Amino acid sequence: MPPKSTTKPTKVAPPPKQSKWANQKTTPKQPLTTQEQLKRLFTTLCAQIDGGHFSNAVKTCDKILRLQPTDVDARQTKLFLLLQTEQYEAALTLIDLDKDPSDHAYERAYSLYRMQRESAAKEVLDELKEEGDDNRGIVHLEAQLSYREGSYQEALDLYNQLLDTAEPDSEEHSDILTNLKAIQGHLDFIERGFLHALDALPASVTSTLESAPPPVQAVAATAASGSASAGGTEPKAPHPPKAPRKNRVPKGVVPGVTPAPDPERWLKKSERSNFGHGKKRKGQSGGGATQGSSTADHAPAAVAGHPKSGGGKRKK
Q: How does pLDDT run across 278-287, given as a tens digit for each residue?
């Protein structure tokens, strides 16, 4: 019988498993069409306006206008957002780029009013009134211009006209009442308030008030002082510097007598240098018996009623 072989048969490695997606070719993702991009951008724009993210909404409008520069809705929305974010210079530039800038004449007048250009804003409003535009916003803006220029009676008449046609429970109604109260306060002071203020002054002041020269403005006074100093007059001596404030001493503390506070009072007790000093370690005290000790190792205690004598043994 032939001897058995001791060599083990070699195992053949199984072939690698092939993925079920190995034979399938990946198709490249097709780019979105212009209409699909616009649809997504408008959806984003609505969500940003609803959430109050006006700065990001302006950027979204710019993306829409890059894809479709003639989109009327995107241009109108961007103009509204620029006014909401107080970017009036950019709003005027956008209006000028429009094919017909007269379509946004009210927005132009409002931007000029907010930029402190009242005369230009009034000219635009006059053109709108000549065209017969009866927008309530125009009347509001005209009343605000009259108030800013000091024509309080004209502003009062315009706000009363708006108040008659406003809804009682609306926000516009409350704003008109607030403005009417401010205008009425100015009118009352011009008609009667300054007279009461004059009556409250002493007679020595009111007698010379009409003949007194007008008050000098701060700029003129500064220029006059500068010219006087240039003419040779000596300037006034500067005020002496204030003495430094004395250190505040707590109540009950005598400097030089009361001991100084511990400099380590802000540290933890375990971090102070005197922590653990004066304490006896465990096992160093004389009291107590250790393990294995007997009563014979210690001196006998005194018997009740027979105190220990201070001397030696007693003689019998």
A: 665 555 555 4
